[in-house]
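During the reporting period the student researcher (J.K.) took over the structure-prediction task from the postdoctoral fellow and processed the backlog of single-chain submissions. One of the processed entries is reproduced below for the supervisory committee.
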Amino acid sequence: LDNRIDCLIKGREGHSTGIRPACTKLTIEKVKEIRLLRKSGIRYAKLSEMYGVTVSQIRNIVRRVHWRDVE
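J.K. obtained the following structure tokens:
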């Protein structure tokens, strides 16, 4: 409980929407690009290589499991 309170006080609460932490490899713009490129037929493996993330991360972005708040 003390750690939880400390996180809230120092603004270290998790992010459910909006801009992600600085350590993220993707931005909102890149997520939109990934979805657009996938619709145009680019394979998951190629997108993974292009953006430096795993195939499963790309798949979850396209299926809106991750970054679901981004249109």
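The committee noted the following: The chain has a mean pLDDT of 84.
J.K. will present the remaining backlog at the next meeting.
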